Amino acid sequence: MRRPLATGLGAVLMSLRVIWGFISILIYVLNWSAIREDVFASADGGLLVPADVADLLLVIGLSALGVWYVFYGVLAGLVFAGANWARIVAMSFASLSIIVVFLDWWNAGIPVTFQTSLASVALDILVLLALSAQSARSFARRNDPRFASTGEPLE
Q1: pLDDT over 50 (residue 155)
Q2: Which of 60, 84, 106, 119 is deepest in the core (most CB within 10 A)?
Q3: Which pLDDT score, from 0 to 100, does residue 153 have?
Q4: How far apart, in Å, are the Cα atoms of 136 and each of 6, 82, 109, 128, 153?
């Protein structure tokens, strides 16, 4: 069975999400002091923690984010190869990401703009649409003996 367009497109969109994530990390690094002040600022304008502790916490956070994006990139490769579990995990992560952005907007009033999370939400929605297509599902289930050639469970 040939790889359907939906599977390839889903993997490409996931890869774009990874690239966008690393660009975001680069932007954070280039604006280090402003990010540190924004995250750790107190009401009087000082820092809640010493600057070296704030720097260490930012390094840990951005490193964890980098590891996450590497994992998501590997997941994109597995989706492209046709692993059904990877397709399901990718759709779950996309759904969770969309829900988190919605909850941030609902509870904290954080606007969904291009500077905050609009690009990632758009990519997550497109990943969901691509990977939930019937052709992507059939391709991912092609080697599973529990499913017929239509990709639907056998009775």
Answers
A1: no
A2: 84
A3: 59
A4: 6, 8, 36, 11, 15
